[in-house]
Amino acid sequence: MDNTNTSSNRLTMFAFFLTALLGGGNSVAVRFSNVELAPYWGATIRLGASALLFWLILFLWRIPVPQKRDALILLITGFFAVGVSFGLLYFGFVKLQASLGSVIIALGPLMTFFLAVLHRIEKFRWQSLLGGIIALTGISIAARAQLGADIPISSVFALIAGSAISAEGNVILKIFSPKSHPMATNALTLSSGLIFLVLTSFLMRETHNVPTLPATWLAIAYTVIPGSVIMFYLFIWILARWSASATSYVIMLFPIVATIAGSLLAGEKITLTFILGGALVLIGVWIGALMKR
């Protein structure tokens, strides 16, 4: 029994870091796709293709759709936690520096922790709070050198609101994830979230063009298959095995992975400050999510 539990924990931990790797790479891929595609239109293509793949998998593998009540809750959760949250995050990043934005988004795991306690699906643990504070401090240090003087307040509030809605969605998914297959959960939540993004793209009067550059197609392919289908599946899979707050700590690794990927692919500079901040993030994630309680 102990060997089985150890093997299961190692597999879940491997899935955790793989999710961080895939999610962090999304930031770099989106930068390439934004060169040719409007932000909301690019997100619409990404989620639309991802939802289509999930429904195709459901059909081929004959995976059952949840019962009406659970399906309705997942659809509503997806509309807000995927659609509205994505919309607010994209809006926030239009005028806000990515470095500051990553710090604000890193509040997500702490929000998830407090919301999980509020929903009474987790008990308050000082260890989780300490890990989140250490990791958030690390991200702040890593981003500090890149901050500018002008900070648009509307963008800051948009990112905070988007992170809070996403955190609440994680808690709801934790409650309902054991009741449905991860593929079905993702198919429903992405489909309803897609509705909001499509409406937003047309309301913003974006250009709805078809990509022509090979780099754009490669970026879309990455955000759809590894960055969405595989990553979202792994996230829901981990969520069924770990607490909502522990699972959400993966978000704190995204900026670290994104910066390293940006350095390798786009020649972005990595400073000593970033290395120090990254080390604190890893320590915080270990304490809050990975260390035995």
Describe this structure in words.
- By secondary structure, this protein is an all-alpha fold.
- It has one domain (about 1-290).
- About 80% of the residues lie in helices and about 0% in strands.
- It has helices at about 1-35, 40-60, 70-95, 100-105, 110-120, 125-145, 155-175, 180-205, 215-240, 245-250, 255-265, 270-290.
- α3 packs across α8 and α6 runs antiparallel to α12.
- The model has no long low-confidence stretch (mean pLDDT about 85).
SSE order and pairing:
Layout: H1 2-33, H2 39-61, H3 68-95, H4 98-105, H5 108-118, H6 126-144, H7 153-176, H8 182-203, H9 214-239, H10 244-248, H11 254-266, H12 272-290
How many domains make up the coordinates? 1
**What is the mean pLDDT?**
86
Structural class call reads mainly alpha
Order of helix and strand elements from N to C terminus = HHHHHHHHHHHH
How far the N terminus sits from the C terminus, by CA atoms, comes to 19 Å
Rg, nearest Å? 18 Å
**What is the subunit arrangement here?**
single chain
Percent in strands: under 5%
Offer a quick outline of the entry.
With 293 residues, this protein is an all-alpha fold. Helix content is 78%, strand content 0%.
For this entry, give a set of tags:
293 residues; mainly alpha
